[in-house]
Amino acid sequence: MLAADGTPLKQSLARSLRRQKLRALLLISPLLLFVMFSFIVPIASMLFRSVENSIVSETLPLTVEALGNWDEKSGELPGEDVYDAFVRDMVIAIDDKKHTRLGSRLNYEETGMSSMFRRSGRSLKKLDPETDGPFKDQLIEIHDGWGDVKTWQVIKTHSAPITNGYFLNAVDMQRTPDGAQAQPEDKQILIKLFGRTLFMSLVITGSCILLAYPVSYLLATLPMRVSNMLMIFVLLPFWTSLLVRTSAWKVMLQQQGVINETLVWLGLVADDARLVIINNQIGTITAMTHILLPFMILPMYSVMQTIPITYTRAAKSMGATNWTTFWRIYFPQSIPGIGAGSILVFILSIGYYITPEIVGGTKGVFISNRIAYHISSSLNWGLAAALGTILLGVVLLLYWVYDKIVGIDNVKLG
Amino acid sequence: MKPTKILLTAAAIATAAGGVSAEEMTIVSWGGAYSKSQLKAYHEPYSEKSGVTILNDDSSNEAVAKLRAMNEAGNITWDVVDVVAADAIRLCDEGLAMEIDPDTMLAPAPDGTSAADDFGELLVSDCFIPQIVYSTAFGYRTDLVGDTPPTDICAVFDLEAYPGKRSLEKRPINNMEWALLCDGVAKDDVYDVLATPEGQEQALKKLDTIKDSVVWWSAGADTPQLLADGEVIMGSTYNGRLFSVIEEQKQPVAMLWDAQVFDLDGWIIPAGLSDERKQRALDYIMFATDTQRLADQAKYISYGPARASSAPLVGQHAELGIDMAPHMPTDPENAKNTFLYNYEFWADYRDDIDAKFQAWLAQ
């Protein structure tokens, strides 16, 4: 079949469709570029950082090569060739002031490396690799750490430019010459924190559902004038700064705080047995439920608003009790709102760290607090990235599970 | 467009094109009362003298991470940054801070003593210019400790004599040293013991004895609030915070100076500034760390000047009119038993011990 201009119809149709597609692409391109550069690229570079480890092989290229011939399990120190290569590498590294950076990197794996590199730098600077050899004894003289087999094992184990070391650290394991092994028991904390973060986020999501459901129901069924009023009460705390709300909880919950003072005054609690409801899990759950409640109420409310009142009337007119009407007619129609709210609240709470830090004490802190520590204090960005990647993976996995059980098309924001 | 508007726009474009205006610099500090003391003692006189406008940024508590990010992005927007000494060492190690030569870049004391000698052993890193000595010490509620107020650090660990909650910082630094000291370890051996796994365990065991009575803080303002509300009967924090609780807010709180830990705070200049900005930063540093300026800062906040030559010049508080010398952590009466933060030890052991400490906390 031919079109009016004589070309085959199929071809002509394809051309005009292509033009349309191109136009559509151009229209979304600003957003696409924005998302690319402000979201996808940073996340991708964060993911990459969790395996990137080129610093060792870039700072000590000759040493890493020479260590290739050394058997790290022999229990003997490497030969003079390694020490010679090491001095050559270090002289260049010290010139570029890179040796202390490498020391900090290796100190994450073996305590003491940081000062070893910093101190040795001062003495090594004076050596000339061409004339001053052999170096083995001189190096051990400078710092006895260079005479420790462990030092060279650590350098060799962590010399690969792409490493799984950070991921192992993130799950309480470590890279050793004998493969991956568990961290010593007194340093295992991260798995526990992952578990706690997931558990507490579930509890927070659950308590948000319980509190938000009746409120949303009221909002959706009351006359517009009243429900608008109530809506402002929901939104008002939403507009207040997070830190202000969290600090307000401190005033409420502490032992000399409003709640305890009231209970003691009423005689419900003895003065010397005041309730401990802050600086623990209860504090975190209370404050975070309050902070995240609007994220649950709003989707629930907008879904409930669309449920026609006629259905419940019909059920009642046919003899259903109040409970049956609610449970069989109303509730199933409100599930998409619960689903949307739960996903929002759960994902937000999994990444919270300011509130747990302020009201969580020791038992109420999340994995994000550790991520923040490694980003801003220890500067171990590789470990922070690995922790973040695992957290992202867990969220995606849970999302998939949710899709399998509830179905993602069963989620509505209104 | 009217001609004046065109002119203004042109001027604005010209300024923007030239990058940072020639007469501006960004100084990063901690905010609050501390920044105010720097504004009065350093920034205002410097601006008056040189005509440079100083922009303040209160980002010091995340300075290390931000400087690293700026360095990776190749766009450093800060000119001078106020950090604690441990962060300065880290920044220097990472190549993020410029090395300073005290003899050519810092002003000598009025009597001609070189800057290197005047600061003495407080120059703990090649990149660091110390400004103040502050200390982490304990404050206690005078009305809640009974008839015998604590005079000894080990009161913190003595639940029988001083029942009630105490607040400690949520990190191992300082707490581990105090725990060992009160577990019978001699002061000179503390770091040797703490370097061994057994020593770390010993310190945590000692902390275990009071674990249920501790409120852990992570912001310097927490302990003053907890003390003022009567939530705790004693707690550690920076001595300047306690000064303001005691002297400015007149709360029933007193100082327990025993075994206070000295720490340093000061300036670094980020590495990789353009020559012009570097020159301006150095000019500011030369002015702001001279003997008189460091002594001036003590009028506004109770931290000791880092130069030996500044100590005799410390006067009275600018608003309260009280003598500042007895409130300085370095005052001989207060400094009978002190620690100096062991920078090298903690640079090595911080991550290791912190992991153990956090695991212990979570138990």
TrEMBL record, chain B:
Spans through the membrane: none
Keyword Signal: yes
Signal peptide: 1-22
Record carries keyword Signal: yes
Keyword terms, alphabetized: Signal
Listed name of the protein: Extracellular solute-binding protein
Annotated source species: Ruegeria haliotis
